[in-house]
Design a protein that fits this description.
Elements: E1 3-8, H1 16-25, E2 27-32, E3 50-54, H2 67-81, E4 86-90, H3 95-106, E5 112-115, H4 128-143, E6 146-149, H5 152-160, E7 168-170, H6 190-194, E8 199-204, H7 213-226, E9 230-235, H8 249-262, E10 267-270, H9 276-283, E11 286-288
Parallel strand pairs: 1-2, 1-4, 2-3, 4-5, 5-6, 6-7, 8-9, 8-11, 9-10
Amino acid sequence: MKKLLYINKQYREYDKRKYKVLSEKFALTVIWLCPFRKTERLPEDLWDKMRYFILGFEGNRLKPWHLYYNFKLLKVLFRYGKNTDILISSTSDSWQSKIAFFVAKYLINVPVSFRKEVWFKDCDNSTLLANINNELTRFIEKRADGMFYPGAKQKLFLLERGVAENRLFPFPCLIYDMKQYKNEQYKDSVLLKRIRNKFVFLYVGRIIELKGLDVLIRAFSEIERKYSHSFLLIVGEPADGGYHAEHSLGYFEDCKKLIAKYSFKTLIFAVIYHPMIFGLIIKSVTFLFSRIRNI
């Protein structure tokens, strides 16, 4: 069985299927930068199927000036990388992927590939450091042994950035298999009964200012006034603490105050985890991709 070393920021419950599939196909070792969340621990059924090392970093994103964790990552890459057959880092935009590339390519001579998630250049961030990072990202993407994309947008973006098509591969095992979640599984849900026969707008994601949920809530007040059969369902949560610094508890509270101000009868602000979320997606009429920054 081939040995795979996989680098990611943190274990998330929605990635369980990814790790399950990888552990079945490879002798899997994972390096996570950040500790487990209190509510998201590695499931027991994966304990004996993979090895893992947690770097202990608690910031939002690893940067070049986090010298201690950069050095620690180098040591771990040497320790586990020398005996692996392939290294995959997620994502190519991250600083840890730059470290992984140079170690794999020039020091331990191991094939290295990356996952790609974004499909646009961040036009709002044109600082010198951002431009340097973007050029480094281009450099490693064009020279990596493979680039894994989750969707057509990412594939097109990589082709436009000069990555050879024969080194582009789909990475399908990212989330739950939608086919196993049938509509009948959720028919008795109190929430789904409430939105039955409604024109449902569904937002699922982080509760942060970047997503512009305050704009969405204000806009829905007009929709609700004109179309009484409409329903807005916002699913998400804020988080506090070091690693979750980009999430704002204050913004979350402001959004709740807006909802109270408009006295909505057809809006729910909820925190719902998998697999319930798939029932909501099946039931929704319009899935909202909310973002206030230009892309």
